[in-house]
Amino acid sequence: MTKFILLILTLLIITISTVEMQAQAPSVERSVSGVQLGLFGAWIHKEGRLSNAIALRGEIGLDATFYYSRISEGWKYYTYPTVNIEPRWYCNLRRRVRKQKSIAGNSGNFLSIRSVYASNYIIGGDPPKGRLVSNIGITPTYGIRRAWGRHFTLEFAFGGGIRIGLLKEFGYSYNSVLPTISIQFKCGYRF
């Protein structure tokens, strides 16, 4: 499984590098940082330019999970910390410039490989009974990011991948691997 993921990452980087060498694209910003609020959490992020169209995004924040409790017959939630590392390829910067649309704040469509570590440490809320498992998610995503004015951003992304539940930390002889779907909608403020 690890070899398969490494193969996909290598092919993606080679493809992106080849596309960039063929045509010089307008560049993403050298550094973008800010805070974002989404439907299921809040995050602080920083993006750094790796090449004209590729940025590496780092993010820490709190995610929320909602669930229905049959015991108390109601909806409950809990929040937990997450860390995200995500290389992003902004794939339509040239077209946006050609159509005289802004690329400020890395406004554009992007493809990324979202890698998230979600801790089993609960910050707030009412978690379900039993053990919560830390997990790692790897999700290829497609997204749209737009900046309004100098400071405000809106971001929507979706994708599908895998989530690895770290069961070995509880003494099991294996980790669980499950499919996952990621849908994100975030409003943000750029510094």
Task: Explain the overall architecture.
The chain is mainly beta. 14% of the residues lie in helices and 55% in strands. It has helices at residues 2-22, 93-98, and strands at residues 31-38, 41-49, 54-69, 74-90, 108-118, 124-125, 135-148, 152-165, 176-190. Strands 1-2-3-4-5-7-8-9 form an 8-stranded antiparallel beta barrel. A hairpin with a 2-residue loop joins strand 1 and strand 2 (41-49). The chain is globular, with a radius of gyration of 18 Å. The termini are far apart. The relative contact order is 0.16. The mean pLDDT is 88.
Radius of gyration: 18 Å
List the helices and strands in order: HEEEEHEEEEE
Helix content: 10-25%
End-to-end C-alpha gap: 39 Å
How does the overall form come out from the CA principal axes?
Answer: globular
Task: Please give the count of helices.
Answer: 2
E-strand count: 9
Strand portion: over 45%
Name the strands of the widest sheet in spatial order.
Answer: 1-2-3-4-5-7-8-9
Largest sheet: 8 strands, antiparallel, barrel
Task: Provide the structure class.
Answer: mainly beta
Query: Could you list the spans in which at least 5 consecutive residues all have pLDDT below 50?
Result: none
What's the overall average pLDDT, rounded? 88
